[in-house]
Design goal:
336 residues, mainly alpha, Receptor-associated Protein, 3 domains, 77% helix
């Protein structure tokens, strides 16, 4: 039976209002930044006054705390090895100021924030105290930044994939005009914009350190995880082993990537309806479950009160994941 608790209700109202105020100021600040970027090219920048927005000041303050906690966590050799996987999220311009350990520090800060919020709610409901709840909240906060980084990495992959053909065309034209591969990479990093420019800056830096072309482009593939980058790396490896005309090789790469991109665009337009159906079928059970929970919060309680209910809940999770995999396999259309 649901019992109304005024303290809990008041605390929830305060939390909701605080989150709403924070989102309001965040959205207003982001809108101000967008407008500033639109109009700054039409305005003359002051040489003496360099004002920082609230968002910039918050970002600077956050990273200052991150650097303080990073020195503590850097003493752990395990965390140092674990942080290596986050180096790919650091851009060329940030490599002097950020390390993979910074992202590990952010994960711990997020975990302790979620842990603290859950602990505050338990103070108002001491009868519902449980170590499992605190542990799950800590793990949720620890792995939540990974979702944001994965989303950002997916956007970067898409932008690199869209601009990779431009980079190959620029390099091929440079070879035709008599330049070597290092000069061609330098032209790409100066002419193009976006993540592809950042990646070619890293390629150029690797080449200045004396790494071979094969190793440099293989490292490029390891960072972006794109099939076209793997194709370039394999072609350069074969060219380095057997020899040949680099202009012809890059001409073949350019033609191949152009045809694959054209085919992908055609397949994307043909499979747009099936992708929409897939998303509807995946999110429909979640939407219905959420609506049932909103209408009757105690409807799912039997799942968590008995061992049989927990087993049944785990079975539902497994069936739902299998349901997603099967639908994705059925609706997926393989392309070259």
């Amino acid at each position: 039976m649901f019992v109304f608790q005024p303290q809990v209700f008041l605390f929830q109202i305060v939390i909701i209002i605080a989150i709403a105020i924070f989102l309001f100021f965040l959205l207003r600040e982001l809108r101000t930044i967008r407008l500033q970027k639109r109009f700054e090219k039409f305005a003359l920048a002051s040489l003496h006054i360099q004002e920082k927005s609230t968002f910039d000041r918050f970002d600077i303050k956050l990273w200052s705390y991150v650097k303080k906690f990073r020195h503590i966590l850097s003493k752990s050799e395990f965390l140092k090895k674990y942080s290596k996987k986050y180096d790919r999220f650091i851009s060329y311009e940030e490599k002097e100021s950020k390390t993979g350990m910074d992202y590990i520090t952010i994960k711990f800060i997020s975990a302790f924030c979620f842990f603290g919020l859950n602990f505050l709610t338990i103070l108002f409901r001491p009868n519902q105290f449980g170590f499992m709840s605190l542990l799950l909240t800590f793990l949720l906060g620890f792995y939540l930044p990974d979702l944001f980084l994965a989303f950002q990495f997916g956007k970067k992959q898409k932008m690199v994939n869209d601009d990779l053909l431009k980079a190959i065309i620029v390099m091929n034209n440079s070879f035709k005009s008599g330049r070597n591969i290092m000069q061609a990479v330098d032209i790409v990093k100066r002419e193009l914009e976006g993540p592809i420019k950042d990646e070619f800056k890293k390629i150029y830096m690797d080449m200045t350190y004396g790494l071979s072309v094969e190793i440099v482009f293989n490292r490029f593939y390891e960072r972006v995880k794109l099939e076209d980058a793997k194709y370039i790396s394999s072609s350069l490896s074969l060219l380095n082993t057997t020899g040949g005309n680099i202009v012809r090789v890059f001409g073949s790469i350019e033609k191949s990537i152009f045809n694959k991109k054209k085919l992908r665009n055609e397949m994307k337009s043909l499979t747009a309806a099936s992708i929409f159906v897939y998303r509807i079928l995946v999110f429909l059970p979640l939407i219905f479950s959420f609506l049932i929970f909103v209408l009757n919060p105690t409807y799912f309680n039997p799942f968590f009160k008995t061992p049989f209910g927990l087993l049944l809940f785990l079975l539902i999770i497994v069936l739902y994941i299998s349901y997603i995999v099967v639908i994705k396999k059925v609706l997926k259309v393989k392309s070259l």
